[in-house]
From TrEMBL:
<feature type="transmembrane region" description="Helical">
    <location>
        <begin position="175"/>
        <end position="197"/>
    </location>
</feature>
<dbReference type="InterPro" id="IPR002781">
    <property type="entry name" value="TM_pro_TauE-like"/>
</dbReference>
<dbReference type="GO" id="GO:0005886">
    <property type="term" value="C:plasma membrane"/>
</dbReference>
<keyword id="KW-1133">Transmembrane helix</keyword>
<feature type="transmembrane region" description="Helical">
    <location>
        <begin position="98"/>
        <end position="116"/>
    </location>
</feature>
<keyword id="KW-0812">Transmembrane</keyword>
<dbReference type="Pfam" id="PF01925">
    <property type="entry name" value="TauE"/>
</dbReference>
<keyword id="KW-1003">Cell membrane</keyword>
<feature type="transmembrane region" description="Helical">
    <location>
        <begin position="225"/>
        <end position="243"/>
    </location>
</feature>
<feature type="transmembrane region" description="Helical">
    <location>
        <begin position="137"/>
        <end position="163"/>
    </location>
</feature>
<dbReference type="InterPro" id="IPR052017">
    <property type="entry name" value="TSUP"/>
</dbReference>
<feature type="transmembrane region" description="Helical">
    <location>
        <begin position="72"/>
        <end position="92"/>
    </location>
</feature>
<feature type="transmembrane region" description="Helical">
    <location>
        <begin position="39"/>
        <end position="60"/>
    </location>
</feature>
<keyword id="KW-0472">Membrane</keyword>
<protein>
    <recommendedName>
        <fullName>Probable membrane transporter protein</fullName>
    </recommendedName>
</protein>
<comment type="similarity">
    <text>Belongs to the 4-toluene sulfonate uptake permease (TSUP) (TC 2.A.102) family.</text>
</comment>
<keyword id="KW-0813">Transport</keyword>
Amino acid sequence: METVLLLGAAFVAGALNAVAGGGSFLTLPALVFTGVPPVVANATGTVALLPGYMAGAWGFREDTAPPPGLTMRLLVVLSLLGGAAGAALLLVTPDATFRRVVPWLLLAATALFAVGPQLRQRLAGGKPSVGKAIIGVLAVAAYGGYFNGGLGILLLALFGLLGQTQLNAMNGLKNWVSALLTAIAVAIYAAGGVVLWPQALMMMLAATAGGYGGARVARRIPAHWLRAGIVLTGLVMAGLFFWRQ
């Protein structure tokens, strides 16, 4: 039953990440439910979702485009730097501390995604500077290297605030940035010995299938349906973690 739970969570998580983010809302609770300590569960779930990000990025290959003012090369550098910093911070965070902050991180990510369209409308008259864009990408990449839960939601909100308007283009870029920062974070997690490889490798297969399938299907789903589903997922998972405390 634990194997079925982990495979199912990884498959749906891969699809969610390809669509608009929030996959770790499923993999982290599934691993914790099977008895894995929170920090190890976060690292293991992140490893499992890496190929799903790659598959999702390939699925959106026709639509991917950087936000105004940034280049793909700069995004690569920022993603790697931020992801490395966040992963290093996770390695020195005690399990008890991480368990307390998880529901708040989930809730904050979900709230930001929910109000993303309104924020973009209010900021429509201004054009973000390159400096602010760089700081924003670095901060979100560091968050992704540390926690990963809600990473896609934060990236979508950030790209929207930076001036991108096409959801499919945002999704494609989100998957590429997620793959880059997750790859460097995985290397650091592995060096720190906080990855359960049997569970991670098993979940990788399911997440990859879900990532590619989700990306191809998402291109045909109305954007408001995607947003509503992701906000609901984030609220439910945050509530479950608050309840466990």
